[in-house]
Specification:
The chain has 593 residues and is an alpha/beta fold. The protein contains 18 helices and 33 strands.
Length: 593
């Protein structure tokens, strides 16, 4: 809309496109709720009355709020394309997301980022992209691409790009890694729409001087707080706290008590990683608003956190409020008690009603690059040769992406380490799938509960190699082979037979089916994994994070076992020089304790 036309429409000199009558307006700027009309012209709010309107909508007794904004999301975690994602979240009031496409970027590089951007232009969901800062996430794994500062500089000026995404390599910041600092420096070299791009953070459990150094470097947010104390320290140092409610990591209940009327503008709601079934069953940002209000938070404050706070933090000056000059992204709520989404307007158009999207959506062309290039492997690739009396094992913590580093005695048969089902000690493998290197990382994990069979997935943060957990090498080999043959996906095998699977043919991360279909297939694979004995809420989501070598304590990549606190590889077997000191720990820190 031209400036002259906007001014004329606001002054009532021209007929507006739409006038909304009869509703109360949540003013996130003044913190009030009051009865007011809303005038819209060419997708923009121009004022609160008009001389004439081409169309009038009457919403008596309802409440208008600005469209909800997800401040940090990996769209790929929903395992559907952007249009399908929009079909699910827009009817729930989410009109904008700030996406970090580092999942698909770690597989396809810049091609993957552009695929997300191109897909978003075909849907009624505004998708702003933060450029992945960690492709690869670390030097401890093999990814499908490498995006250095030079490569990112070629993308940062593209429409829809607004900053640098979560800097997971916090040791790289603290110890001044030139490549990490060069990427961060891009945010200080360019202004996007008159705004300095933001740099998002990712620093679980970081504290004290190291945290101060991280914040001093210009990093403005964190979504990895798991305790009130951690969030309070980061808030005091100036970080925006992203309250996350994903599938594997849920922090809303823990962090909400920190929010008060004085500091509430420093918080954002984010979903981060949320599976389709959770979106369809529980909701999206709307569910966080409802739960926050149900826990006692003022509805206006909850809506500010869900809209204006993210808009202001990211410099999205035309979003976050129903006010003149702002984009007409509006959620029509039944009231401030139930907070049920009745309709959604995007750029002034009625795009969703009664929980259903009204507008058709086109799909963008798929990426051309192959995403499944596994080297030569066989059943023997997954044998673990016994080489000591003590081993390090990954200890799963339910509903968290952090793990424990456990020490225990392995079960050995025929000179090989085997799964110990009595102690829930299973074999784990990570198979490189991008460059055909043949890399296979092997380890042990406690907490999955499988009594037989194996599960495998090509969704394995952040490099997305093939990760598998199983009761023996043959089952693991069968599961990995099936993922490779599908072109990516999730699979459960038992006795060498495929019990359930979800193909993900787009980069090994995304399905070409509807979210409803994907949710059904996820339920099938999760159900099949539970039938094998797993008690985890979502074994595949848990498995996907066991390869992430930036989240403490112990993780496994295609290149080996990683002690995240040391940020370096460690052997599976404890060496003789460590054994005497470790033996006591083994008794008190073994699996199941």
């Amino acid at each position: 809309m031209k400036l002259e036309e906007l001014i004329a429409a606001a002054r009532g000199e021209v007929e507006v496109d739409l006038l909304i009558e009869g509703a109360d307006v949540v003013n996130t700027l003044s913190g009030e709720v009051y009865r007011s009309d809303v005038a819209i012209c060419e997708g923009t709010v121009v004022g609160f009355d008009c001389e004439s309107a081409k169309k009038v909508l009457d919403f008596p007794g309802m409440v208008l709020a600005p469209g909800f904004i997800d401040g940090h999301v990996h769209l790929e975690s929903a395992m559907v394309t952007v249009p399908e994602y929009a079909r699910a979240v827009v009817p729930r009031g989410t009109t904008t997301v700030v996406a970090d496409p580092h999942e698909i970027a770690n597989v396809l590089g810049a091609e993957g980022i552009r695929y997300i951007l191109d897909s978003s232009r075909l849907s009624p969901l505004s998708v702003f992209v933060m450029l992945p800062s960690c492709v690869p996430a670390t030097h401890l794994e093999t990814s499908g691409a490498c995006l250095d500062a030079t490569a990112l500089s070629e993308i940062i000026d593209e429409e829809g790009v607004i900053g640098i995404a979560e800097v997971m390599n916090y040791p790289g910041v603290i110890f001044r890694d030139p490549s990490v600092l060069a990427k961060m420096g891009l945010a200080g070299e360019r202004r996007i729409d008159g705004h300095w791009p933001r740099i998002d953070g990712h620093c679980p459990l970081l504290s004290g001087r190291d945290l101060a150094a991280y914040v001093a470097a210009g990093i403005g947010s964190d979504h990895e707080c798991t305790s009130l104390e951690e969030a309070r320290e980061k808030l005091r140092l100036g970080m925006r706290i992203m309250i996350r409610e994903g599938t594997a990591a849920k922090n809303l209940d823990d962090l909400l008590p920190l929010v008060n009327e004085v500091n509430s503008r420093r918080f954002l709601f984010v979903s981060d990683d949320r599976h389709p079934s959770d979106i369809l069953r529980e909701g999206h940002i709307d569910s966080m608003v409802k739960r926050a209000v149900g826990a006692g938070l003022d509805p206006i404050v909850a809506i500010q956190i869900a809209s204006l706070n993210a808009a202001e933090y990211f410099g999205l000056r035309d979003l976050g409020a129903i006010a003149p000059g702002r984009r007409a992204d509006i959620v029509v709520l039944d009231d401030l008690d139930n907070l049920g989404v009745q309709r959604v307007l995007k750029d002034g158009a009625n795009v969703a009603e009664g929980g259903r999207l009204l507008t058709p959506i086109e799909e963008a062309p798929r990426p051309r690059s192959s995403s499944m290039n596994v080297g030569r492997i066989g059943p023997g690739s997954f044998d673990i040769k016994a080489d000591g009396n003590l081993v390090r094992a990954i200890g799963v913590i339910p509903n968290q992406i952090i793990t424990r580093s456990l020490l225990t005695r392995p079960k050995v048969e025929g000179g090989k380490v085997v799964a110990d089902l009595d102690r829930d000690l299973l074999e784990m493998a990570v198979v490189e799938r991008h460059n055909g290197t043949g890399n296979v990382g092997l380890g042990l994990v406690n907490g999955f509960g499988l009594a037989r069979g194996a599960i495998a997935t090509s969704v394995a943060h952040d490099s997305h190699n093939i990760a598998a957990v199983g009761t023996n090498p043959a089952e693991i080999y069968r599961a990995v082979s099936e993922v490779r043959n599908m072109g990516g996906g999730l699979v459960v095998v038992d006795g060498g037979e495929v019990e359930a699977s979800l193909p993900l043919p787009i980069a090994g991360l995304l399905s070409d089916r509807s979210m409803d279909e994907v949710a059904e297939l996820i339920e099938e694979v999760v159900g099949a994994a539970r039938a094998l004995g797993s008690s985890l809420e979502d074994p595949f989501m848990t498995l996907s994070f066991l390869c992430l070598p930036v989240i403490p304590e112990l993780k496994l990549t295609d290149r080996g076992l990683v002690d995240v606190n040391r940020f370096d590889f460690v052997s599976l077997f404890v060496g003789e020089d460590e054994e005497d000191g470790a033996r006591l720990m083994a008794r008190g820190s073994g699996p199941g304790r």
